[in-house]
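Mods, move this if it's the wrong board.
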Amino acid sequence: MTTLVQSMMNDSYTANGAPTYKSSLDPLVDWFFSSGTLRHKEEDHIKELWYKAWNANPEAAIKLAFYTRDVRGGQGERKTARIIFKELASHPIHAGIFEAFLHLVPEYGRWDDLFIFFNTSLQEPVLGLISNALDEGNSLCAKWIPAEKSTRDYDGVKGSYIAKAIRRYMNLTPRQYRKMRTKLNSVVETKMCAKQWDDIDFSHVPSKAMLRLRNAFVKNCGANFETYLEKVATGETKINSGTVMPHEIAQIVLNKVGASGWGVDLDSLEEFTTEREVLSLQWDNLPNYLKEGTSQVILPVIDTSGSMYMDVKPRPIDVSIGLGAYIAERNEGPFKDAFITFSSNPQMQLLQGEDIFEKISNLSTAEWGGSTNITKTFQVILNHAVKNNLTQKELPSMVLILSDMEFDHGAGYSTSTVFELIDQDFIQHGYIAPQLVFWNIGSSEDNIPVKAHETGASLISGFSPSIMQQLLKTGSVTPIDLVMEVLNSKRYSQIKI
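Not the wrong board. Structure tokens:
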């Protein structure tokens, strides 16, 4: 296919009529921009998209699969990554290549990710990994291995089958297997089941478990839990938040505050006092991916339009609010705490409040819903710059657009993309447009705003803010630059074919 034909066949439109592209014309970039939002897509579509990356560069494709799963340095997408891992294991040639990376699966994800390899050609090496970990007393591994009577389904494999396979591989009797699990499995849920509430060390409770079990702690060991929270607040002890994502806290806050009425006096919510304290402390202790020195002056743009309320989990609106609040709060530049919501009437806002409950409650007073005219949002920035005769240095150098990418056709009959329109507007007024970061948190098919080698733009996806490290480090001149920065980073250097 000639470049001209490929380019002509690549034109597309958003759901609201704005010109866009079907592809960035680079399969690695296409995966990077889509993988964080694929959890609700059909398996065949996910595989097709990933195989395009594999055909372009197998090593890069495997790195992208691990980046997709990576709970700390990547997107933390379990379902999508498992689909790709299982597909690799099911292929006679690819399985042999992927076997060398099996030990990395629990490193980037969890030990139960390995269960998808049961009933494949990789079951035997996986049993070896699990057996060695249990022999070494690995409690994280023990946490995930099922009991022999387990009826749970692990991607088509029964928990009882997995347990029996592990036991037999280790030459254990059923009684020995049970004793081993009990001895190594010191997770908080075990103590809860035994009603040993006073024995729980809250500082050792994992991030997601704390988020999930917070109300159980309030109900069953409230006094001890309150004392613990007081110590966290004074810095005497820690609360784990390393694998919690901003939207997971934001969606709880949105539900709590929304259910009580927007603009409610939060001090009146006595029944939420301890829970509010837990969520606020976890929010404050989220990893700060913006802390390293950067020359970038950043400004988040939060899409609060109607399409962001689609009925999926998580909702795009929860993600945009969570990530937007996280970035605005941790931004140390001249736009600290600032953000713009784009809808029918875009407004510059400041994140205000004593804790995340107040901040999101106050954020709710901004205009939400309506259209998705992103060009109008940038006209707000540009008009302010022209009116006040601002210099280039006084403008943001990087704007993060947290959106489902369903932009309106906001320029008459123009065939220019959103990126091209914004760039043209800034040039006409004597400015250089900021680096535009299109952060996909729920896009539909065939909707990629820029091509892979477009200067002045970046394409990212997903719900994790960890990508900010690479983004701020490089400035990411083009979308492919950022992808290669991630793939060539030390974190994925051990993945080589």
